[in-house]
Design goal:
two-stranded antiparallel sheet, 2 strands, 506 residues, mainly alpha
Length: 506
């Protein structure tokens, strides 16, 4: 013992013997971090390439500024085949080359799919590590595996993840078109942002229910925005939103949190913008809840009957004790107030702080597909290029925050009431989702809980924010006293895109 305050003078006695106590510190790096590359060394090793790509970007920007409008329009149309080609190459060269089980908790996800195929039934949460998840992704995957037949299981499983990831491009484009119908450039930039978002790219190559859940939740957000922007609450729109929400919930139960947000904003719009009678609005929203309950409620009823609780996680399956092995097992305020280690060693940095872990898994595969040791990582990513993305993405993060702030500002000051409500919804959903991710790290204080892709469902919202910020900044620079600053801005964007591409295909 020692003084009343815990410090290194305290001693500890336990099964393994006795020794001096260590002051609690949840920001202490895991030894595996020191096996990962230093970012400064990678920058020095690839500085010539960085400068060369940046110079090429300057030439591209200058060339486009002097090009005829017709040529720029044709180049804009080439965006779609370029994005499609990139995703096809990602699927063929990377997704298909990964083992079937590869991904975060991949072996357990694969076990779920095999259970559905072999047993011809849905498992209970007590049947395996990931079997607490709702079944939609696994049933679809099992169906695809059986459709492709012997030898096609990898392709089938990858299709189940890659197609939802590809759908994020359409979701971002559709959201931007609905919110900014007169700005075609913003919709194109939003599509690029979603299509090249690193967390969307790597998750679309791994075995996981996250991409399908994110795509269905994203479509539900898009459909809800459509209802918020129009008069009334038509039944076809409500049924569509309810069906998409039910699909998202049957892919991952966390989408239950989206339901009260959707209901709240639709009620707000119905009362404040439509001036609908309260009974009519209540009936319409009750219909939406009925659709969700009718399609997805059975799963939670079954849990209630079997386990005595409707929502079951792998941490609270009744009758089963599961020990969380991951460090640190607790969190302090320091973990949530620090940032910067990701710019020194970007991989496995979730040990250092919450924001380092989120940044690391947002702009790259910072947890290397759920592998615990750097030496065991798969070789299909270009980790040198991915390391450089973390530095290049610092301005992109600032631009995304700037765009998000502009959406909030417009939501507070616009003239169109329905559009203001829709913009507020688009801002509220990422905020609420981020809060849930933060909350999960408090409830389950393991370094692996700090993952940006738990918010993959708001990719469309984030892409619209980023596109809005980028175009606002570019247009203001073009109209300023220093219009030439547009050139380095464009060159930086070209460099970031090039290194994201190289990270996954290089």
């Amino acid at each position: 013992g020692g003084d009343s305050d815990s410090d290194s003078d305290w001693s500890v006695d336990g099964e393994g013997g006795s020794g001096l106590a260590v002051v609690a510190d949840d920001t202490r790096p895991d030894p595996q971090v020191f096996a990962t590359p230093r970012l400064g060394e990678r920058l020095a090793a690839h500085s010539t390439m960085l400068l060369g790509v940046f110079a090429l970007g300057c030439l591209v920007s200058l060339g486009l500024r002097s090009a005829p409008a017709a040529l720029r329009a044709r180049l804009a149309l080439g965006l779609w085949p370029a994005l499609a080609g990139f995703w096809v190459a990602l699927f063929v060269r990377r997704a298909l080359a990964l083992p079937a089980y590869m991904g975060f908790d991949g072996p357990q996800h694969l076990e779920y799919v095999r259970f559905v195929i072999e047993q011809g039934a849905l498992p209970l949460a007590s049947d395996g590590g990931m079997m607490y998840h709702p079944p939609l992704f696994y049933v679809l995957s099992a169906g695809l595996v059986q459709l492709f037949g012997s030898g096609g299981d990898v392709a089938a499983l990858r299709i189940a993840s890659t197609l939802p990831g590809l759908a994020q491009i359409a979701i971002a484009f559709g959201l931007a078109r609905r919110l900014f119908p007169d700005d075609r450039a913003l919709a194109r930039v939003a599509a690029v942002c979603a299509g090249l978002l690193p967390m969307n790219l790597y998750m679309s190559c791994y075995l996981s229910n996250e991409p399908l859940h994110a795509a269905l939740a994203g479509l539900a957000i898009w459909a809800t925005v459509g209802l918020l922007l129009r008069d009334g609450l038509p039944w076809p729109g409500l049924v569509a939103v309810g069906a998409l929400l039910a699909g998202a919930i049957l892919s991952k139960a966390t989408s239950l949190l989206l339901l009260p947000l959707v209901l709240g904003f639709l009620a707000w719009k119905s009362d404040f913008a439509d001036r609908s009678p309260a009974p009519r609005s209540a009936l319409a929203l009750a219909g939406l809840v009925a659709v969700v309950g009718g399609l997805a409620g059975w799963y939670f009823v079954r849990n209630q009957l079997v386990f005595g609780q409707a929502v079951v996680g792998n941490w609270n399956v009744p009758g089963i004790e599961r020990v969380w092995w991951q460090y640190p097992g607790f969190h302090t305020a320091s973990y949530y107030l620090r940032f910067g280690d990701v710019l020194a060693r970007p991989f496995l940095v979730g040990f250092s702080s919450f924001f380092d872990g989120i940044y690391s898994t947002f702009w790259g595969d910072g947890l290397i597909g759920g592998i615990a040791a750097w030496r065991d990582r798969h070789p299909l990513w270009n980790y040198d290029a991915m390391s450089l993305v973390y530095v290049l993405a610092v301005p992109a993060t600032a631009i995304g925050i700037y765009g998000f702030a502009s959406l909030v500002r417009e939501a507070l000051s616009g003239d169109d009431v329905r559009r203001r409500i829709a913009l507020t919804f688009i801002a509220a959903v990422p905020f609420a989702t981020g809060f849930v991710v933060l909350y999960l790290t408090l409830v389950h204080p393991a370094f692996g809980m700090t993952k940006a892709f738990y918010a993959l469902s708001v990719t469309g919202c984030l892409a619209v924010s980023a596109a809005r910020g980028a175009l606002l900044l570019r247009r203001r620079l073009a109209a300023s006293r220093w219009p030439g600053l547009v050139v380095p801005l464009d060159a930086w964007a070209v460099t970031l895109i090039a290194f994201i591409g190289a990270s996954f295909l290089g």
